[in-house]
Amino acid sequence: MRIKKLIALFFAFFAITGASAQAKKYNIHTVAFYNFENLFDTINGPNNDEEWLPKGIQNWTSAKYKQKLHNLSRVLSEIGTGENPNNSPTLIGGCEIENRGVLEDLVKEPLLINKDYGIIHFDSPDKRGIDVALLYQKKHFKPTSYKNIPLLIYRSQEGKDDKKDKDEATDDKAETGKDDRVYTRDQLLVTGFLDGEEVNIIVNHWPSRSGGEKKSAPFREAAGRLNRTIMDSIYKINPNAKIITMGDLNDGSYNKSVKEGIGAKRKKEEVKPFGVYNPFEEMFYKGNATLFYRDAGDIFDQIMVSETLIQKDFSSFRYWKAGIYNKPYMITKSGQYKGYPLRHSSNEIGYSDHFPVYIYLIKEVK
């Protein structure tokens, strides 16, 4: 009889605590990153955009450009809507963007215009003319400072050539100037207030694997170190700073650029003060992917958060969970690339060769 009473008390306790937990309410924001894959307009600009013109190799017409904008806007309007009543992400990092003009066209799309996105964008020295940027919902995020931080890398830093990697898939050819510098994307640092709380965001598109993974690895390792330097400079000003770094890293969560350069950890319990948690490392080892090459998947698109965002006190915004957005309409249905992200081809305007990634930030409402 005594055991039965103890069991009854046990279930009663969890019924009460469960009801208490259900009564809690949270503010929630989605933070996303998406490689827009060749978001070019049809205007001949000062960058290397000849391929993406009406008379270029891609035969990139106004109709195709408009379809591309519509496709991207559909994805962006839906990311995170499953568990976020605000719908669409509050913050969106993007890459493979030709200029500010294409972003202005994108945020005016019918599916996005009511979200009132602001734009933070700088032209980078990338010879192909592609940049990174941040879109933000003006009613929730108020930027206070932003700057582009150059990644200075040189051909003399290259590793040894690996013949097995010579044909590594990439649409992103690094170019070298007369000074031996490899001209690539800057890293974008944005600081602002998310519903009144200061947050720092770094948006990345690290150097490609052009020429082979091993040969180009030192470039991405330099990018990881630059990322870490930016974080450390933020911590010198505010040891309690909240930092989110995201992007297409052209490396996996297990690579040296991420593990040593940034110092990212796979498990929350491994993260020390000033450290970084990478939820996408665990997702990779569970078989998830944001892109594919030769039937092998990987997660090059990642969002990482500072230790200050994984603390258990939800009286301010904290990391909740992460995901990869890969709905059926974004996936190739048949043929050689069945199961891959549905990208642009000669007979179809797709979405991107990457799936977007996202995280949720939540804060308890008292």
TrEMBL record:
Keywords: Endonuclease, Hydrolase, Nuclease, Signal. Pfam families: Exo_endo_phos_3. InterPro entries: Endo/exonu/phosph_ase_sf, Endo/exonuclease/phosphatase. Residues 1-21 form the signal peptide. Residues 30-152, 174-363 form the Endonuclease/exonuclease/phosphatase domain. One of its GO terms (molecular function) is endonuclease activity. It comes from the Bacteria. PANTHER family: ENDONUCLEASE/EXONUCLEASE/PHOSPHATASE FAMILY PROTEIN (AFU_ORTHOLOGUE AFUA_3G09210) (PTHR42834), ENDONUCLEASE_EXONUCLEASE_PHOSPHATASE FAMILY PROTEIN (AFU_ORTHOLOGUE AFUA_3G09210) (PTHR42834:SF1). This is Endonuclease/exonuclease/phosphatase family protein.
